[in-house]
Amino acid sequence: MLSDLRFRLRAIFKRSAVEQELDEELSEHIARETEKLVRQGMSRGDAERTARLSFGGVSRIKEDTRDVRGTVVLESIVQDLRYAWRGLRSKPGFTAAVLIALGLGIGANTAMFGVVDRLLFRPPNFLRAPDRVHRIMMQYTWNGERQLDNSHAYKRFLELSAIPSLERTAVFSQRGFDVGLGVDAQEMQVATVSWTLFDFFSVRPVIGRFFVAAEDTTPTGAQVAVLSHDFWQNRYGGKADVLGQTLYLAAVPYTIIGVAPRGFSGFSEEQPPAAYIPVTTFGHLRDPRFHEHYGWTWLNMYARRRPGASIAGVDVDLTTAYQRSWAVEGEIGGYKSWPTAQAAGARAFAVPVHTARGPDAAAESRVATWVMGVALVVLLIACANVANLLLTRAAGRRRETAMRLALGVSTRRLLQQLLTESVLLAALGGLIGIAIAVWGSRVLGALFLQGAEPVAVVKDVRTLAFAATATLAVAILTGLAPALAALRHDVAGSLKAGVREGTYRKSRARTALLLFQGALSVILLVGAGLFVRSLSNVRATRLGYDVDPVIVVQARVRERLTSAEENALGVRLVEAATSTPGVKGATLATSIPFGGNEGRGHPYYPGADTARIRRGQRYMLQAGTLQYFETMGTRILRGRGFTPEDRANTPPVVIVNQAMADRVWPGQDPLGKTVRFGEETNPYMTVVGIAENMRGSRIENDSENWYYVPWEHFRAVFGGGFYGLLVRVNGRAQDYVDVLRRRLVQEMPGSSFVRALPLRELVAPRQRSWEFGAKMFVAFGVLALGLAAIGLYSVIAYAVAQRSHELGVRMALGASVRDVMQMVVGQGVAFAVTGIAIGGAIALWAGKWIEPLLFAQKARDPLVFALVGTVLLVAALLATLGPAWRAMRVDPTVALKSD
């Protein structure tokens, strides 16, 4: 069998040598027969003739021998590949245009597939039975608004874990920790997890062990840590003696007991954690009673169904357990107005592990899905472009094709050659596409995966399989049009055309492909225009404060301080910040826009419509020192801001924003009104000012309810400490971050330190979906426009070349150069106008699906449609200029002489 295989391979790759051996063998047989006949008395001439006749046709014997080898099909494929390669090498311009179009289309789709696959489909590395693993979410109605929650208290996690349809449950929470001590401390991501997490994955530690149940029990847990592989390599050089060493996390010592394998990151969808610690250990350090109440919801819960258990059955069990837990929560909290679980519609259910699959998907995930669709549209445009180029090339070779068919080449073999050429082009385009995807995956990963490990295109089997599938689909799509055209080939008509085969023939296929490209380009450009307008609207939106000159400072206190000590520290930090060169103002704050908001209950005053005030509303508190409004740049519309007279021993006052004023006191002047927040024992506060509206949790919401309390009144009425500082500087915030941090850390007690970052870094992620959409739609829209322009240019150029005789005759009969130019340009403009009409109609129809992703922007924006139409018309004019110039230079004398 091996000998036979070697022979067949040799017949394919060393065909000339095998053919020579066959000729020699046949000649030897004929020679022996000739000698035999000569010995029998025949003359040599008669003997040779008789030997050849008795032996049969040499050509037929050769064909039969090749059939016996079983390599005819492979040999014909190799011949077709060589023929296709010679044809492509002879037309380098055509080949380059095709490969660039295919490479860009395949590369863009491969890169986007890697991102979308990671967001939506690829299970976490090493996950066991991924089809049975889910996130657990809760849903309920509160103040008339349906709430969706994926954050669990530890007590609720234990209660939901007890249902029989679940085989295993775990919790996973990731947050920033100060790793190390003193000046060497760095903020890194650390995962607080239950010991059961590791059982969800088919992993074993590289060295040491994972923590076990005995080290993850309430109330305290054990201070042990498992390092990630990357952190072990980077911080400890991959040394085995790391076991038993102490790792300080938030100033708490943890003993290193193991190292996770490379590529393991648990259920993290962001930057992989540096270490894993027991959830009970961290919970006890933050709140010794964390396992006894429901107040601290901070954990994501994951569960694996038992084999045979359905998702519907699990949802029923989860809801039953959640409703029991809901009732217990009301009893523990002693809430008088706590609704029943049935009245609140409380339920718990299993959802996919990937957050991008919903139901709580972020806007970036939805945009990424749309961009994947956009990339597929670009690939379709590229395929249409290549198919058009192949049709144009086939039309130019009509006479050659007719001659080959007339000489006996079968239609099947001709189709095989055409498809082989398409496959070769697609394969080369696929290789270029993979190279583009390697670069593109880094760019797209940075945009959509937010610090997660990038997709390794060349090493990833799933991504390579997609690239191969896309390449095969491209080969079929691009080869289909030329193959169908070959089936309808008029051999006699093409041969009768003689040398001048240039009588122009309109092709419905080429026209349809060209209009298809134009229409899809319009759709993508309209999407690009809408997202660009959205991004412009986002950037122009007043948030209720200044963003760029403000720095957020978070004090990381590692020692337990009394309330008085914490307040004194806050005062020192404000004074130190204010005295720093370049700082215009500073204030303590209990809330940070998009970084953490404080709430102390709903407003109340005698006679208030409580149901209307509370229905679906959140009221957020901001307490600040004297310079709060000047520091943030928040404008006071009426009344006043904070003053030095607002001290602890004076009547408490409050400033509300315009949205809250309109909601709580509709049609009334709120200045001078009194209102109470939170507990019934809290004092009433007098409204002394109205501030402009502020967006601190969602950029899309321009009616958030905010109220502002002077710092001394906040401590007297509500108690509590500060979340951080807000500092305003002269110029760009990033230029002062390091200087400010170094100055403030001098005021911190012991090993505590501060973290400073520009406010822009908190706001920017909220604008990311529109920025992503604008960038990606513009990039793909421009690419689509370029491909469409190339397609239009090729069709018009071919038409001019084929009609050169007709144009010459027209000019000889009196047509002016201007007439010829108008005819050529008019053809291109007609294509463009038709494509604009078709694409515009589709874009108008599809706008309802993309409008939810836009910001203050209608999908049917006349300005965007008009601009896109203008751009496409200009592109069409530019694409026809070259062919029109050549048409104007046609020599009528040459055209007439050819007749």
In brief, what are we looking at here?
By secondary structure, this protein is of the alpha+beta class. The chain has 4 domains: 2-70, no CATH class; 130-352, no CATH class; 363-539 and 767-897, no CATH class; 550-765, no CATH class. The strands form 3 sheets. Strands 1, 2, 3, 4, 5, 6, 7, 8, 9, 10 and 11 form an 11-stranded mixed sheet that branches. Strands 14, 15, 16, 17, 18, 19 and 20 form a 7-stranded mixed sheet that branches. Strands 13-21-12-22 form a 4-stranded antiparallel sheet.
Task: Please describe what this structure looks like.
The protein is an alpha+beta fold. It folds into 4 domains: 2-70, no CATH class; 130-352, no CATH class; 363-539 and 767-897, no CATH class; 550-765, no CATH class. Helices cover 53% and strands 14% of the residues. It has 28 helices and 22 strands. The strands form 3 sheets. Strands 1, 2, 3, 4, 5, 6, 7, 8, 9, 10 and 11 form an 11-stranded mixed β-sheet that branches. Strands 14, 15, 16, 17, 18, 19 and 20 form a 7-stranded mixed β-sheet that branches. Strands 13-21-12-22 form a 4-stranded antiparallel β-sheet. A hairpin with a 2-residue loop joins β1 (133-142) and β2 (145-149). α26 (817-850) packs antiparallel against α27 (862-888). The chain is globular and about 135 Å long. The model is unreliable at 499-504 (pLDDT under 50).
